[in-house]
Structure formats: C-alpha cells, structure tokens
C-alpha cells in the first residue's frame, strides 16, 4: 500500500515523519521501530532516527510505503 505524505519544508526527520504519517503514536515508539531495523528509506534499512527525509524519498514501515512530496 502507498500513502502520500506532504511537507511544507525542505525536509522532515524520520521519527517526525512516522508520527505525522500515523505509523506511530509517540517518538519513543518511532525510536524503537527505527532501532529495531523495521524502517526502510528508499529500500534500505535505516537506523538513524534523525535522518533527513526529503521530497522524493519513500519510507516503508509495516508494509506501507509513505511517499514524501511538497505540499502545494
């Protein structure tokens, strides 16, 4: 499944994106998923909670692809 995530800024940090997308409820939950290798950025496992996610990146968690684009 694919979902669009729209941001107004140049980038969003990975843990913040997971909260914005509704994939997690808290920053602590995001941290656990990321540290456990459950999150992929552009197809590769990412364990950097503060990684800058920019429009054009795709984040996968729980079988859902979140495609990041600029909000218009």
Characterize this entry briefly:
By secondary structure, the chain is an alpha+beta fold. The chain contains two helices and seven strands; from the N terminus they run ββααβββββ.
Topology, element by element:
Layout: E1 2-7, E2 12-13, H1 14-21, H2 27-35, E3 39-41, E4 44-45, E5 52-53, E6 58-61, E7 64-70
Parallel strand pairs: 1-7
Antiparallel strand pairs: 2-5, 3-4, 3-6, 6-7
Helix pairs in contact: 1-2
InterPro entries: S4_RNA-bd_sf
Pfam families: S4_2
Organism: bioreactor metagenome
Question: Could you walk me through the main structural features you see in this protein, from its secondary elements to its overall organization?
Answer:
- This protein has 72 residues and is of the alpha+beta class.
- The protein has a single domain, classed as RNA-binding S4 domain (Structural Genomics Hypothetical 15.5 Kd Protein In mrcA-pckA Intergenic Region, Chain A, Roll).
- It has two helices and seven strands.
- Strands 1-7-6-3-4 form a five-stranded mixed sheet, covered by helices on one side.
- A hairpin with a 2-residue loop joins strand 3 and strand 4.
- The protein is globular, with a radius of gyration of 11 Å.
- InterPro entries: S4_RNA-bd_sf.
- It comes from bioreactor metagenome.
- This is RNA-binding S4 domain-containing protein.
- One of its GO terms (molecular function) is RNA binding.
Taking Cα atoms only, what radius of gyration do you get, to the nearest Å?
A: 11 Å
Which percent range fits the helix content?
10-25%
Tell me the β content: 35-45%
Q: Give me the strand/helix succession.
A: EEHHEEEEE
User: Remind me, CATH topology?
Assistant: Structural Genomics Hypothetical 15.5 Kd Protein In mrcA-pckA Intergenic Region, Chain A
Q: Structural class, judged by helices and strands?
A: alpha+beta
- Strands, total number: 7
How would a textbook summarize the main sheet?
Answer: 5 strands, mixed
User: Which residues sit in consecutive blocks of at least 5 with pLDDT less than 50?
Assistant: none
**Total domains:** 1
Strand numbers in spatial order across the main sheet? 1-7-6-3-4
CATH class: Alpha Beta
CATH superfamily: RNA-binding S4 domain
**C-alpha geometry:** globular
Give the CATH architecture.
Roll
What distance lies between the first and last C-alpha atoms, to the nearest angstrom?
23 Å
Mean pLDDT: 96
The count of helical stretches stands at 2
InterPro entries: S4_RNA-bd_sf
GO molecular function, one term: RNA binding
Protein name: RNA-binding S4 domain-containing protein
Pfam family, one: S4_2
